[in-house]
Write a structure and sequence with these properties.
The protein has helices at 42-45, 54-62, 84-93, 107-115, 133-137, 144-154, 173-182, 211-222, and strands at 5-10, 19-23, 70-74, 97-102, 121-125, 159-166, 189-193, 228-230. It is of the alpha/beta class and 235 residues long. The protein starts with a strand and ends in a 5-residue tail after the last strand. It binds iron/sulfur cluster.
Amino acid sequence: MLISAIQKTTLLDYPWKVACIIFTTWCNLRCGFCYNSEFVIPEKISKIKDFIPENIFFNFLKTKIWKLDWVVICWGEPTIHKDLYNFCKSIKELWFLVKLDTNWQNSKVLKNLIDDKLVDYIAMDFKNSFDKYNLTTGVTEDLENYKQSIDTIKNSWIDYEFRTTLVKWIHTKEDMEEIAKVLSWAKKYYLQNFKWWKTLDKDFVWKSFSVTELQEFKEVCKVHVKNVFIRGYDK
Ligand code: SF4
């Protein structure tokens, strides 16, 4: 696994639990609002002097048994790494819980991890209504993989959340209604503002929504999804 960085402790990523975060490298998408472009864009990644060897990470993890509950694996996009399966397996062998943050485009990898119980929680970025998905992710792709991932999650035991990072002029109430219809069965759906001060595409600066606007989106979504939250404002 290409590890760009490790955050050794956080209480913020999973409620009431202590976690460490692994930042992987590369991403197959190019969302303009991405705030970790240094882990996504090849020219920026090349400025990272050294990746962290896996054995350093696992040595660290072995000192944290009974002190950490979760290992969070996040961006770039973890599922594009062929060794993700074995990486998760090694973490599980040390009895840690695994949370995966993913753009859920790689449906086969996701299914294998879920079927073999190598992840315990998945957070999936539902970028936009399917009509505007490619506009939002910055790449043109077949959306079938996302639909297969939805089927996998729907039919699985796994705990999960969907979330949408909202950007002015990209997300409308109509888009949110479309997403909410697709996710009408989902357990949890989070709406969140993007970090306008640090974006992959500089044209995205200053385009976040007000709390009132987020509340309006939430009301639209709640018609279809039972549990909708605004990240940072709701519990
Ligand atoms: S926001 Fe996520 S999916 Fe989009 S480019 Fe950044 S890491 Fe990739």
